[in-house]
Design brief:
The complex is a heterodimer.
Chain A lengths: L2 H20 L33 H5 L15 E7 L5 E7 L1 H5 L3 E5 L32 E2 L5 E7 L2 H9 L2 E6 L6 H6 L3 E2 L1 E2 L2 E2 L1 E4 L2 H7 L2 E9 L11 E7 L2 E6 L4 H11 L7 E4 L14 H13 L3 E4 L2 H7 L6 E9 L5 E12 L11 H4 L6 E10 L13 H19 L3 H7 L17 H12 L11 E3 L2 E13 L7 E9 L2 E8 L8 H13 L6 E4 L16 H24 L13 E4 L2 E4 L2 E7 H7 L4 E7 L5 H4 L3 E13 L5 E11 L6 H20 L5 E2 L4 E2 L17 E6 L22 H13 L15
Parallel strand pairs in A: 1-15, 13-14, 17-18, 22-23, 29-32
Antiparallel strand pairs in A: 1-5, 2-4, 2-6, 3-5, 7-18, 8-9, 10-18, 11-16, 12-13, 12-15, 16-17, 19-20, 20-28, 21-22, 21-27, 24-25, 25-26, 28-29, 30-31
Helix pairs in contact in A: 11-19, 14-15, 15-16, 18-19
Chain B lengths: L4 E4 L3 H8 L4 E4 L5 H6 L7 E4 L7 E3 L5 E4 L4 H6 L1 H6 L1 H8 L4 H6 L2 H5 L6 H4 L42 H7 L3 E6 L2 E6 H4 L18 E7 L8 E6 L10 E10 L2 E10 L6 E2 L1 H7 L6 H11 L12 H18 L4
The chains are: A alpha+beta, B alpha+beta.
Pfam families (chain A): Ald_Xan_dh_C, MoCoBD_1, MoCoBD_2
Keywords (chain A): Molybdenum, Oxidoreductase
Protein name (chain A): Xanthine dehydrogenase YagR molybdenum-binding subunit
Chain lengths: 780, 329
């Protein structure tokens, strides 16, 4: 890092530090969201009514092009070969048979690949989204078992696959760390997330734990998980003149284009990356080696390339959730009041990536306790770079914390819901900030009633249905509200044949969760137009701004950018309206949109339609681009979503098989924008959580660091028969400090689920399983 | 996938003639073979499609069933005679794979399924004596949760994955084979091999042999039979252990019993010791448990599968208990 960079970082750090001191003290009205979004008060519009996905028909008709369905003329097909050692050098490559195989266009290895820069690792700059700080196909080094080391291009996919199977390699192996114990012995270091140490200390938790009349203190373990989006990763790539075109499956379109541009020494506008449809992301649809390999191979052979990872390829190239080992210790008074909360432990990453598994994040704001110690330490292993996977941190962290709360309830002889409510904080226990919106008690009350929690027997192992032991468990889920900077929206109003048409362009990603539909709802409502007159464009690096479909923040970022662009549009239209308008003399903040018109906010009769304004100004179009406000609200309030989760399991007393009989999630996530897609989001998260609870586990062979179940036959995710009736309800109480009063809901669904299942298994059997997944051998 | 030629046989003799050529493989539904070809574990150069041959199910003179090798798994499972007279066979088939796979998979192909050992599948990165004889076994000290506890060898600890074959083993089915040496029959119990020092050889078939039918002999008390599969998720998972059993009660005593186990060995495991122990004895939970323990007396668990003998024992006790009461679902 250069001195200049260091100085810049220091300055940014100082600025950040100053903001963090000042923003909490600033009056609410100075902060974005300080004045509630007027749309919150609008009760009878599109927001909150169920709208079917606007792209639904397209998808079921097969009309929606995914990354591996774009075509270029003279396109070639790529297949990869993967290293079979954990660390070392490629000593020899025998490619003669592959090069002579039918249809082969090119075999590319580090020996003939174009020279490229190392992709900037995720988070090293606002646009950096590289998987690691490792060069790709630039040297003979192997850093993980499964690393791509050769790429074959051929006229058909089958020819490429066959030729790749003919490649033979030898290696000079070097010592590697592939065991957990080896990694631990080599030393752990403080986990750092986005430049901040994952370490919080309030009071003296150790002393308070020792002094507490009641306590629990246990280790919880979660295994590696792999990404299994239904669409395997793919990209269709062409160099056109001096432009690089990538049709990708991406949840961070603009950032990927920028990082790829740097790899190939291109200007940002020389890379055009589109991603109109994504078949599931969950954190995995980012930049990995395959897009860079594909672009390099296309450059080398002078023809377009389609690179589609096989399912095994996804396991070798695309990282997943890393393993964790977490200690949760809680000390409490007899009435349940928590005196000490300790949540510490370790996770594993690689020497080359930047992703800890921040399992303590959800614990920071969970329970009132005068003494808190939270710490994540990281060990290093030679393996594929781990990455984000739906609720990184919270998904596994809530398993440990919420299991421990259940164990404490048993220790105290208290109802676990009562225990949680007993320790409900009135402000954030770690940051000290007030909550922007926290209605978890309401979620518990409504959830318990809907689920029939009062039918639960507090004594484990007392309900029986033939061979099946039946039990109920509950847990809290939690995920923060984020809004990242960088989002911009461009709104273009067009007057054609007397009708107004709006186009809203936003560099967002639609991974199947309904973002494009929700964006249309939000924009239509903001502009006061019917949804049919609003077109949304997204998933294209040519669109201004940068948004990431990550951290459940995309909806908020879009909402904030549309607010800013709408404000700019109002100002622009007022200028065009001039002195002959009923709106003459009004300032932009006195004016809003309603019924395809601008109107005075407190006197809606004073109005002029968009069509009239444009017509009088002899304009057929007006266009504005505006960035959302800086997300200072995150420093002013503690902002979180919550869920109260209820689970009924059946555990077979003979075989130990666990089947989930019922599940209910009661969510407190602000105002729900589109109940139809939201319900699917919540359910999908819960189903993923059931998989995490009961079956998901990457088999990482510690002898050589190789993933041994890279297949949906052997890596178990829930099938239909594993998924019970899932009830989803929500408080629908708007957060007064967010756009539309909404929170992102992509990740909250999975959090807490594994604990709810584990706690139900305890209630059914009296057996406490503290290492996931809860397989039958742990129960017989 | 390695390039191959594909041809479709019009009748059995032609298939056997075509299948006699070197590097040939018979193709049924392709639900396992094609996967293995994609993974380059199987590299046949010639595929002979036999899925259109022998597709009938007929009654034998003796009162059993003759099931053509080309009969689809779904067809067999739903066949009225199978459901009424051999419910364990119907249930075993329905416990396997998914509806889509069962619609494609054939009876002959089901017998020829290869193990799901992940080291066997990993042609690039793992050693496997079954895939490359003499290369070593990475499963023995690796992930072996789904592996064998009975009848394994130093060379191989793999299990046979079929559910249907477990039921057929309990029923003393007979495999009808046609090869260059003509037509012959093989007892299903001897059709699959234990691994010994040749785990690459799954069955006693000679090269070019074609399974043409499976005969299920009559067994009156098979009407009181069932199949129970224990697995890590509710569907679409291979058995950790499975039990196929038929029970003939004489008052409160066992007149006769058939038991076969899946997921525990390199072949469908006919529990002959347990059967012998039970025949003529009391139908009590203690007797069932003692018989099961006897069956697993020589079990040799590995790192990850030590739970299997107990799991199989419990499952067997439960199955026999239900059959004794006549309420096995």
């Amino acid at each position: 890092m250069s001195i200049l960079d260091t100085a810049k970082e220091t300055a940014q750090g100082l600025m950040q530090g100053a903001l963090e001191k000042l923003v909490p003290l600033a009056p609410d009205s100075w902060i974005p969201g300080g004045v509630p979004d007027p749309l919150i008060a609008r009760k009878h519009g599109l927001i909150g009514s169920p709208v079917s996905r606007l792209d639904g028909a397209f998808k079921v008709q097969g009309q929606a092009p995914f990354a591996a369905e774009f075509r270029f003329d003279r396109m070639t097909y790529a297949a990869l070969a993967y290293a079979t050692v954990a660390r070392g050098r490629v000593a020899s490559i025998d490619s003669a048979a592959a090069e002579g195989a039918p249809g082969v266009v090119l075999v590319m290895t580090h020996r003939n690949a174009p020279r490229m820069n190392t992709p900037a690792v995720f988070g090293s700059s606002p646009s950096a989204v590289g998987p690691s700080d490792l060069p790709i196909f630039q040297d003979d080094r192997v850093h993980w078992n499964g690393q791509p080391i050769a790429c074959v291009l051929a006229e058909t996919q089958e020819q490429a696959d066959h030729a790749a199977s003919l490649l033979a390699f030898t290696y000079d192996e070097e010592p590697s760390t592939t065991t957990l114990e080896g990694a631990r012995a080599a030393g752990t270091e403080q986990g750092v997330m986005m430049g901040r140490p994952l370490l919080n200390k309030i009071g003296d938790a150790d002393a308070a734990l020792a002094a507490a009349p009641h306590s629990v203190d246990h280790l919880y373990r979660t295994p590696r998980h792999n990404h299994n989006a239904i669409e395997p990763h793919a990209a269709t790539i062409a160099w056109v003149d001096d432009q690089l075109h990538i049709h990708d499956a991406s949840q961070m379109v603009t950032q990927q284009a920028q990082t790829v541009a740097e790899v190939f020494d291109l200007k940002p506008d020389q890379v055009r990356l589109t991603s109109p449809y994504v078949g599931g992301g969950f954190g995995s649809k980012g930049l990995w080696d395959h897009q860079i390999i594909g672009a390099a191979a296309a450059k080398l052979c002078g023809r377009p390339v389609r690179i589609t990872l096989s399912r095994e390829g996804v396991y070798r190239v695309v990282g997943g959730r890393t393993l964790t080992e977490q200690r949760v210790a809680i000390g409490a008074q007899a009435d349940g009041a928590i005196d000490a909360l300790i949540h510490t432990g370790m996770a594993v990453m690689t020497p080359h990536n930047s992703m800890p598994e921040p399992f303590t994040l959800g614990t920071q704001s969970a329970y009132a306790s005068p003494n808190i110690t939270l710490q994540v330490k990281m060990a290093k292993m030679n393996m594929l770079a781990n990455t984000f996977m739906r609720a990184p941190g919270e998904a596994v962290g809530t398993f440990a914390l919420e299991s421990a709360i259940d164990e404490l309830a048993v220790e105290l002889g208290m109802d676990p819901i009562d225990l949680r409510l007993r320790n409900e904080p009135d402000r954030d226990p770690v940051s000290g900030l007030p909550f922007s919106s926290r209605n978890i008690a309401e979620a518990w009350r409504r959830g318990a009633e809907a689920f029939g929690w009062n039918e639960r027997s507090a004594t484990p192992g007392t309900r029986r249905d033939g061979e099946w032991q039946v039990g109920m468990g509950c847990a809290t889920g939690t995920y923060p509200y984020y809004r990242m900077p960088g989002a911009e929206a461009r709104i273009t109003l067009t007057l054609q044949d007397g009708a107004i048409h709006a186009k809203v362009e936003i560099a967002a990603a639609e991974m199947g969760m309904g973002t494009s539909t929700t964006t249309a709802i939000v924009a239509a409502e903001r502009l006061g137009l019917p949804i049919e007159q609003v077109e949304v464009a997204y998933g294209d690096s040519a669109i201004p701004g940068a948004i990431m479909a990550g951290g459940s923040q995309q909806t908020a970022a879009i909402g904030g950018a549309v607010i800013a662009a709408h404000n700019a549009l109002v100002a622009e239209l007022l200028k065009l309206a001039g002195n002959d308008s009923p709106l003459a003399g009004l300032s932009p903040d006195e004016v809003g949109s309603e019924g395809a018109a601008l109107c005075k906010l407190d006197d809606p009769g004073r109005r002029e339609s968009y069509a009239s304004i444009l017509g009088r100004a002899q304009r057929d179009q007006v266009s504005v681009t505006q960035a959302g406000s800086p997300p200072l609200e995150l420093m002013h309030w503690s902002m979180h979503s919550h869920s109260a989760l209820f689970c009924e399991v059946r555990v077979n007393a003979v075989t130990g098989e666990t089947r989930v009989g019922r599940f209910l999630g009661a969510f407190d996530c602000g105002r729900i924008l589109n109940p139809k897609t939201a319900r699917s989001q919540f359910r999908g998260g819960i189903i993923m959580g059931l998989g995490m609870a009961l079956m998901e586990e990457t088999q990482f062979d510690e002898r050589n660091g190789r993933i041994m179940n890279p297949s949906l036959a052997e890596y178990h995710v829930p099938v239909h028969l594993d998924v019970p009736e899932i009830d989803v309800i929500w408080t629908d109480i708007p957060d007064p400090h967010t756009p539309m009063g909404a929170h992102g809901i992509g990740e909250i669904g999975i959090t807490g689920v594994a604990a709810a299942v584990a706690n139900a298994v305890y209630n059914a059997t009296g057996r406490r399983v503290r290492d996931l997944p809860i397989t039958l051998d742990k129960l017989i | 996938m390695t390039p191959f030629t594909y041809s479709r046989a019009g009748e059995t003799a032609e298939a056997v003639r075509m299948g006699g050529a070197a590097a040939s493989a018979y193709l049924g539904g392709g639900t396992n073979l094609v996967d293995l070809m994609r993974e380059t574990v199987a590299r046949p150069e010639r595929l002979v499609d036999v899925s259109g041959l022998s597709t009938s199910i007929t009654d034998t003179d003796a009162g059993g069933l003759l099931i053509g090798a080309g009969v689809r798994n779904t067809t067999l499972a739903e066949h009225r005679a199978v459901r009424e007279r051999f419910p364990l066979l119907s249930r075993a088939i329905l416990a396997g794979a998914s509806a889509q796979i069962r619609n494609m998979a054939t009876v002959g192909g089901n017998l020829m399924q290869r193990t799901r050992c992940t080291y066997f599948y990993d042609a690039d990165g793992s050693r496997c004596n079954k895939r490359v004889p003499g290369s070593g076994c990475d499963a023995r000290d690796g992930f072996n949760r789904i592996h064998a506890v009975l009848g394994a060898s130093d060379a191989c600890v793999a299990t046979h994955p079929s559910d249907m074959c477990v039921a057929l083993a309990a029923l003393d089915a007979v495999v009808h084979v046609e090869g260059s040496a003509g037509v012959r029959t093989l007892p299903l119990r001897e059709f699959h091999r234990l691994p010994g020092d040749r785990p690459d050889v799954d069955t006693v078939l000679a090269p070019g042999d074609l399974i043409v039918a499976v005969e299920v002999p009559p067994l009156g008390f098979a009407t009181n039979s069932t199949y129970r599969k224990v697995r890590d998720r509710a569907s679409y998972a291979f058995a950790l252990v499975s039990v196929a059993a038929a029970l003939d009660m004489d008052g409160d005593r066992v007149r006769d019993v058939r038991i076969a186990l899946g997921g525990v060995a390199h072949k469908p495991w006919r529990a002959a010791r347990a059967e012998d122990a039970l025949r003529g004895g009391p139908a009590t939970e203690q007797a069932f448990r003692a018989a099961a323990l006897m069956e697993f007396a020589d079990a040799q668990p590995l790192r990850d599968n030590a739970f299997k003998p107990e799991l199989a024992t419990r499952t067997l006790v439960s199955v026999l208990g239900a059959l004794a009461k006549g309420d096995a679902a």
